[in-house]
């Protein structure tokens, strides 16, 4: 292992006040030196990154881990295409986009399963009839004089695809054809929360900690369904790794520490939540909110990539139908189970 003191990219950016930049020299994916460039997002489903960072697990990897925070999956896809990233912890759909573009990388671990909730205004949940869902949306439109509007992440994102799957495959409602339902793409978790708080949308498809923040703010929204009820093994955030790293000792070491972080999360829920708040920032995720979110039915942290295989097949179909990928990827193209199976 390198004798160099590990200084994460996040630390460097804090010190300089700079925004994330790329063109890093010496990453494993670009030159075979001892640096491992890891992309992550300040989202709850990247919990393993926060734990590995704060518990010092990266120090067990024979490389200097440099983490870079990104605000969106598409930004990570661009960085991956430029060869600046070795490992990315982000959504299954942008991971598919990276693979579809011919970049030599595969998913080696899941970060979480079944993390999404379908949420609606309490006036809608009062009229909700799961046996006649189309009638419920029609009743809302009749009483409000407008369609029920879902606001979530942009089209093709994990929350968007999960919502479309629920409407189409579970309820038999085509959101493109049903005049009583609309889906509006918003700018992410913060924009979705603000849209709900301002009454600009009527419901959402979203992950923690947004449902907990909604509850704490006393906003009039409730769960209509959770993804575990209709898509067992629903995928979301995953860990994507370049072939060069996958085929090195560093790859297996990273997955080993990922699994160790998952076990830590499941055994030390409050401490893990504090780590998430520290890395994301207390102004964005207060420690108490992070701890409360751990009790949510959406907080199901895992490492085993086999657990999300079934749901990934459905997401691959939607990603292709929505034009996010040129072709529907197979699970063999998406996953490399060998590193997890070798633990």
List keywords for this structure.
343 residues, alpha/beta, 3-stranded antiparallel β-sheet, 10 strands
Textual characterization of the structure:
- The protein has 343 residues and is an alpha/beta fold.
- It contains 17 helices and ten strands.
- A five-stranded mixed sheet has the order 2-1-3-10-4, with helices on both faces. A three-stranded antiparallel sheet has the order 8-5-9, sandwiched between helices.
- Strand 6 (148-152), helix 7 (158-170) and strand 7 form a beta-alpha-beta unit.
- Helix 9 packs across helix 14 and helix 13 crosses helix 14.
- The protein starts with 8 loop residues before the first helix and ends with a helix.
- 50% of the residues are buried.
- It comes from Halolamina litorea.
- This is ABC transporter substrate-binding protein.
Helix content: 40-55%
* Low-pLDDT regions: 1-27, 29-33
Could you spell the SSE succession in H and E letters? HEHEHEHEEHHEHEHEHEHEHHHHHHH
Please state the CA-atom Rg, rounded to the nearest Å.
20 Å
By helix and strand content, what is the structural category?
alpha/beta
Instruction: Report the principal-axis shape.
Output: globular
Biggest beta sheet attributes: 5 strands, mixed
Average residue pLDDT: 90
Strand percentage lies at 15-25%
Major sheet: order of its strands? Answer: 2-1-3-10-4
The total strand number stands at 10
**CA(first)-CA(last) distance:** 20 Å
Number of helices: 17
Pfam families: NMT1_2
Organism: Halolamina litorea
Protein name: ABC transporter substrate-binding protein
InterPro entries: TAT_signal (IPR006311)
């Amino acid at each position: 292992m390198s004798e160099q003191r590990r200084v994460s990219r996040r630390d460097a950016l804090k010190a300089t006040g700079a925004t994330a930049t790329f063109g890093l020299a010496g990453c494993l994916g670009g030159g075979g030196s001892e640096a491992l460039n890891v992309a992550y997002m300040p989202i709850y489903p990247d919990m393993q990154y926060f734990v590995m960072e704060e518990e010092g697990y990266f120090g067990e990897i024979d490389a200097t881990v440099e983490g870079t925070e990104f605000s969106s999956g598409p930004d990570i896809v661009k960085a991956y295409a430029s060869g600046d990233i070795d490992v990315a912890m982000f959504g299954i759909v942008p991971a598919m986009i990276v693979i579809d573009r011919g970049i030599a990388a595969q998913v080696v671990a899941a970060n979480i399963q079944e993390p999404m909730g379908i949420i609606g205004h309490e006036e809608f949940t009062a009229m909700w009839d799961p046996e006649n869902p189309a009638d419920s949306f029609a009743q809302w439109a009749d009483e409000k004089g407008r369609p029920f509007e879902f606001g979530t992440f942009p089209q093709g994102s994990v929350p968007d695809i999960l919502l479309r799957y629920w409407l189409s495959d579970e309820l038999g409602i085509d959101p493109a054809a049903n005049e009583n339902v609309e889906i509006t793409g918003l700018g992410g978790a913060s924009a979705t929360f603000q849209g709900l708080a301002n009454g600009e949308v009527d419901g959402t498809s979203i992950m923690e900690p947004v449902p907990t923040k909604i509850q704490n703010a006393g906003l009039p929204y409730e769960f209509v369904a959770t993804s575990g009820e209709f898509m067992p093994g629903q995928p979301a955030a995953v860990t994507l790794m370049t072939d060069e790293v996958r085929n090195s000792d560093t790859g297996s070491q990273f997955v080993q520490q990922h699994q160790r972080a998952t076990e830590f999360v499941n055994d030390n829920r409050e401490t893990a939540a504090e780590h998430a708040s520290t890395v994301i920032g207390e102004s964005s995720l207060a420690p108490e909110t992070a701890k409360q979110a751990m009790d949510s039915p959406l907080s199901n942290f895992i490492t085993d990539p086999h657990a999300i295989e079934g749901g990934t097949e459905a997401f691959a179909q939607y990603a292709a139908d929505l034009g996010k990928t040129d072709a529907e990827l197979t699970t063999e193209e998406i996953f490399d189970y060998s590193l997890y199976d070798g633990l």
